Amino acid sequence: MGRLDGKTAVVTGAGSGLGRAIATRFVAEGARVLVTDVDLVGCEETLAAIPAGPRAAAATRRVDVSREPEVEAAVAEAVQRWGRLDVMVANAGIGAPGFLADLPLEDWQRVLDVNLTGVFLCARHALRAMREDDRGGSIVVMSSVAGLHGTPVLGAYGPSKAAVLQLVQTLALEGAPSRIRANALCPVWTESPMVDAFIQGLGLTPEQGAKRLARDIPLGRLGKPEDVAGAAVYLASDESAFVTGVALPIDGGHMAGRLP
Fold first, then answer.
1. Are 162 and 148 in contact (CB under 8 A)?
2. Which of 6, 171, 221, 258 has the smallest number of CB atoms closer than 10 Å to its CB?
3. pTM of structure
């Protein structure tokens, strides 16, 4: 049996990168997954990449997480299709690299709209749906090690990811009476379109960029989407039934310290 057999999940930002890996792994573990992203073409590509099988159950929907009606409609669709919502993975996020002194206000605001307000909206409507079922649920939020310490050139992204960590703690407390858990994943630099764009912005080749970013990772490599997906499965499953309010680094030892 799969670790998520019978569970229904909504995964945002699932049109590529970490979201695609999480959605694919969830289906492989027996979950029914609504694949959502602002990029519907990416959603369809994710759906096409999910291996067919007797337990495979997935659908797609375009969702801009900064728009509440779209988030609310996604949760409603998952409940209508499969009867309830067990897991919300609030993964959608964007970056706007730049030094604080040069960062346009509109870039700052858009990052907060997606990375913080978007998580709030996903959590709000997940909580409402999960409270309708006495079996509780799991809310998994994508933060970052950039939310655990300062990072130059990530002056909007880092604060947005730090804010969601406090939001997760509040969610854990408010959800506990209904057996709704909330936890955050904090990946380090991980192979993804967002990191590819960051490396390109530095004027480096993919190989140069990966080598440079891996210097601060004791295990000596960038993360892989599958590394994050495995942790998401754990937090979504009943194996973590007594885990809530946690910020879990997926970082190859990055937060443990620096190698001499």
1. yes
2. 258
3. 0.95
